[in-house]
Design a protein that fits this description.
about 625 residues, binds flavin-adenine dinucleotide, four-stranded mixed beta sheet, 20 strands
Amino acid sequence: DTGITRYTYDVVVIGAGGAGLRAAIAAREQGKRTAVISKSLFGKAHTVMAEGGAAAALGNANPSDAWPVHFRDTIRGGKFLNDPRMAELHAREAPERILELEHWGALFDRTADGRISQRNFGGHEYPRLAHVGDRTGLEMIRTLQQRIVALQQADAAELGDPEARLRVFAETAVTELVTDGGRIAGAFGYRRADGGFVVFEAPAVVLATGGIGKAFRTTSNSWEYTGDGHALALRAGASLINMEFVQFHPTGMVWPPSVKGILVTESVRGDGGVLRNSEGRRFMFDYVPDVFRSQYAETESEADGWYDDPANHRRPPELLPRDEVARAINNEVKEGRGSPHGGVFLDVSTRLPAEEIRRRLPSMHHQFKELADVDITAEPMEVGPTCHYVMGGVRVDADTAASDVPGLYAAGEVAGGMHGSNRLGGNSLSDLLVFGRRAGLAAAAYADGPGRGTVAGEAVDRVAAASARYALEFLKQGGGENPYTLHAELQDTMNDLVGIIRRGPEMAEAIARLDSLGERSSVLSAPGDRVYNPGWHLALALPNMILVSRAITAAALEREESRGGHTRDDFPAMSAEWRRVNLEVRADRADRVTLARRPVADIPAALLALFEREELSKYLTEEELPEQDGADA
Ligand code: FAD
């Protein structure tokens, strides 16, 4: 009864968020037979939860905006650790991808003269986020799904079968990639509804599985985000980079306990919301770091003036990049100036008329009313940091999204490099479109090309049989531990020992605990049958979370500096030497990771010239700095 259903495709896309759907559309448009697999219901992904918007230098709200300015903001936000080629492609292509979405039917909010409206967000010099109220991701997913349906209708008309070239496998979780001779040959998984096994033969696989947030206790991420794609890539022989950089969003709900961690969109601050401590002080003015000092307001009146007259005022410090704001909130709470439930106050009620708040932030209004009985048009919210996004991911080629395993591609949150040490808000939704499309195109080309792996039926059968046997072990009655207990211990370990502020000895302790959790995870029990057995599903995902947590912790212990989403209490400064280093993680066994140092690619001189020499000197070593003369070109 381990019966395994077998499918054959040219391109298999794992994940149906923005990156996966965009990749699938691209592969199908190249005429490839494409499967899209999603662990959750079709349409349910992080992308659908995205609130604030998608960053693209359309220049609608401020004509001075252009891709080089977006590039510069992205590099600043990532503290100069970004893959420069990815940041360049992203900034250049994001406007085209947004206009394409509009062409496919996305209804963005409008400026008075009818163009796509753009809103302010942390770290972006100009209003840049194309948005739909605070429900942008919903519109993005709706549009991409509609495009998929349109392609299926075209196939129905031409071939008599809507799924002839593009089929969605919803509620199907991939647990293993199949490789043969070091190349991709397919993927194995199970259907959540009935526990039936599936195996896909395919020369090309695109990973688009999103994030890892469920390894942490307090997170804005939902149940699917167990780092599956990161772990699948490691086990298939690919490498991950930047895993030490985990973004803690400054504003998650802190109360009531059942909803702790749920996101409070940055749009609240972008639209005028201010942060105050229990003494009523607008404390962000106390936390503007030197590298950003010249760009941020020093007084409340200057900050307030910026909303209406940005040309003559500097930005409010509430709109510093996320890592800065999260650390500041953490510190205020630690020093005893927090709100009653251990956060700080975020207030938009004194800044905008109630009607305007309901119009611009409808989801936030609803969320606080329903979940916390707080009316944000009349009172402040209580907020605190929450694990939100992983900058680290599969090391990919910028132009093709190819990993170093032939046939394996990665795009979206599961890929690394684009955001350096810290992602700017809004840069993920545009990243999904830019690199999802590139991954789909490259996977399609590879599936045709002479270099593709011959899909070896034998390797597929072998991996499928072994994976099925492994999965079924967990269903045996008794003897093993409860996966929920282990998951809670893992989340506590990561939150408390590898969280927003890190220390060497604590991370060493985390590694010891992860070793023990790793051992215990091989003897889990999820008794019951295969029909919708969430304990069983968690048992299958736990080893992925533990492996990813090992990658995060090993890299975080190794990097002896503080930068972006990696703050070391014992190494508080940013180091120009460490800026040149990417930590690359591989798994030499399913339960052990190794680290290697790789140089960060140089920013091409023409793009380096976008920065003043004085700013560069805060990041780069003396020998990397451009000559005095050309510096300010
Ligand atoms: P996701 O959208 O996360 O989709 C992953 C897909 O992979 C899902 O379909 C899932 O089911 C599937 N999957 C996972 N594992 C498996 C497996 N083993 N087998 C099969 N399928 C699998 N970014 C912005 O730019 N702007 C915003 O305003 C914004 N707001 C956000 C608000 C919230 C609440 C959150 C949580 C994030 C927000 N982000 C925002 C970040 C952004 O939404 C995500 O980074 C982005 O959507 C990730 O997209 P993705 O396509 O990589 O993956």
